């Protein structure tokens, strides 16, 4: 008697190996998607901070064009301090010196406005820095 054994299919070992490989691939993609979500959240915070900094700079320019502030101390105490505020999770600081140290949780923008000279009349350009920070600054 001549019996041919033409069974087609996978053995148990082949099935287990394929399942293990597929599981590793799925775990790698799941891990990668977690990092992507964290990166997206960081990008969202940076984008929102940039929007707040641009908005604040535009407000400073508009107000300075309507009534130019005085330079030096009065610029900070009587003019720029009006723009320092908290907005949700963000802290906004406007200065005429770049006294805010940059961190990975902050964005700084700069502009120039014309400020009145305290003596002699005329105007003088003043550098203005707007820094928006968020989250834990110690990280």
UniProtKB/TrEMBL annotation:
PROSITE patterns according to UniProt: PROKAR_NTER_METHYL (PS00409)
Main location: other
Entry keywords, A to Z: Competence, Membrane, Transmembrane, Transmembrane helix
One annotated GO biological process: establishment of competence for transformation
Superkingdom of origin organism: Bacteria
Keyword Cytoplasm on entry: no
A cellular component annotation (GO) from this entry: cell surface
Membrane-spanning residues: 16-38
Compartment(s) of residence: Cell surface
Official protein name in the record: Prepilin-type N-terminal cleavage/methylation domain-containing protein
Organism expressing this protein natively: Ammoniphilus oxalaticus
């Amino acid at each position: 008697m001549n019996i041919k054994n033409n069974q087609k299919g996978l053995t148990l070992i082949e099935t287990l190996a394929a399942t293990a490989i597929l599981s590793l691939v799925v775990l790698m993609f799941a891990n990668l998607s977690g990092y992507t979500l964290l990166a997206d959240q960081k990008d969202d915070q940076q984008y929102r901070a940039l929007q707040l900094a641009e908005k604040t700079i535009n407000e400073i320019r508009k107000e300075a064009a309507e009534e130019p502030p005085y330079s030096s101390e009065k610029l900070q105490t009587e003019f720029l301090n009006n723009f320092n505020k908290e907005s949700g999770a963000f802290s906004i600081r406007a200065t005429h010196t770049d006294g805010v140290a940059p961190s990975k949780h902050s964005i700084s923008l700069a502009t120039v406005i014309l400020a009145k000279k305290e003596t002699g009349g005329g105007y003088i350009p003043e550098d203005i820095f707007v820094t928006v920070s968020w989250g834990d600054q110690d990280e």
